[in-house]
Design brief:
Elements (H helix, E strand, L loop, with lengths): L2 E3 L2 H14 L4 H18 L7 E5 L3 H15 L4 E4 L9 H12 L3 E3 L10 E5 L11 H10 L6 E4 L24 E5 L11 H5 L1 E5 L13 E3 L23 E6 L6 H12 L4 E6 L14 E4 L9 E4 L7 H12 L4 E3 L1 H8 L2 H8 L5 E3 L3 H8 L3 H6 L1 H12 L2 E4 L5 E3 L5 E3 L12 H14 L4 H21 L12 H16 L4
Parallel strand pairs: 2-3, 2-5, 3-4, 5-6, 6-7, 7-8, 9-18, 10-11, 10-13, 11-12, 13-14, 14-15, 15-16
Antiparallel strand pairs: 1-9, 16-17, 17-18
Helix pairs in contact: 2-3, 3-4, 7-14, 7-16, 9-11, 11-13, 14-15, 15-16
Length: 500
Amino acid sequence: MDNPLYTVAQLREIERAAYAALEPGALMRRAGAAAAKYALELLGDKRDLPVLLLAGPGNNGGDALEMAAALADAGIDATVLNPPGQRETSNEAASAHERARAGTVGFIDMLPPGAQWGLVVDGLFGIGLTRPIEGEYRALVAALDELRCPILALDVPSGLDADTGAVVGPDGIAVRATHTITFLGDKPGLHTADGRDHAGRVEVEPLGVAPELFPAPAARLGSAESFAGQLAPRRHNTHKGSFGDVAVVGGAHGMAGAPVLAARGALFAGAGRSFVATIDPGPGYDSLQPEIMFRVADEFEFAQRTLVIGPGMGGSASAMRLLAKALDSDSPLVIDADAITLIGASPDLAGRLAERAAPTVLTPHPLEGGRLLGTTAAAVQADRLAAARELARRSNATVILKGSGSVIAHPDGRLLINPTGNAGLATAGSGDVLAGICGALLAQGWPAWEAAAGSAWIHGAAADLLAAHGVGPIGMTAGELPAAARAVINLLVAEKAGLT
């Protein structure tokens, strides 16, 4: 089952319900004990080195103080840094402070220069932070970047919005943790936008709270289980017509590479046949993949084929005419790149999109998403989940809002955050390959939701596979992704069939 993700508002309700069922301070003590246990695992054979815990003014600081007391009881040299002038804001945090003071925990009020730490713990601010970190706290967070040791964030890295994954404030700062132990439930912001850069590896600790206290999640963190029902070994008694045709429509003058990359993505993801239908005269042959067939888009029959429209398409009158034809067709459709821009500029095309009944997937990056919503890329990035949900609602299509932690949105409001991929995907043509993979899955009969979730996961896993073998992330190219995606798909199918 995909990991559930909860908003701050939901977590507050869970916390209130748990407080009513437990004795005062129980949740904070459990959080401190769980974090201390995790810290001991991270320290490994470096338990002789001291641990620095940054304790802020609220309950997040209380968690850090409980953790410090637990570490001291385990024989660890634990030191708490309390920034000057702060006061505890709850009875639980005050009690945690007393417990830490009563033991062997040391206290300081500034970061000592040149000190060597086995681990630094961020307990400055939790999920309640609503304004940018400023003053001495900002200087302290900035100083953490100079430390050469693991950094463990409690609940959420300080300065990161737990709902959106954005750093709080237009010029804000956030702790860049190597690990995060997050309490009660997982948060969307740890997995998208700036979240993946700041949260590091995420460990979820429910603190023993009863499952019945948890509501339906706001979103889920995707996995191969999101689309596992579509994976199956191929029968021997099949032919190329069994796996569908994918036609990539695009390739205006000077942009033939984009549809070729998409067609390769479709071919390696299992489409029976892969076509490129070019708007302007272009290549008639792909020397690397001669299996791909080339046609002139104006003369190409769309019926009975899955269409991937937009890669290298341009904005000509011919492009608009072909896009309208595709939107009016009964063909499964992946809308990418220039086709998204054309729809964003045309109420007529947007209306045709919303009226489609056939499976449809949109694959915008934040700038393209902003064009569809009439806003900016920055506004989309400020709340990627809300933007993806609105895009899906307006378009009546499944949406893959690309970026770190791509967000998959269904018109009914369902949200999924894709966990795979790395910085190597930030390269020209990567999105074209994703669109081709998605088209291939649709052509093989996958529903739009599963095709979107599956293509995003497979595309990211392909990049992770390449990086694991030394191909990137720096210098990874889009042309290397299709073969890696093929390897990922075959491995998934073999695993499901019990052949590995």
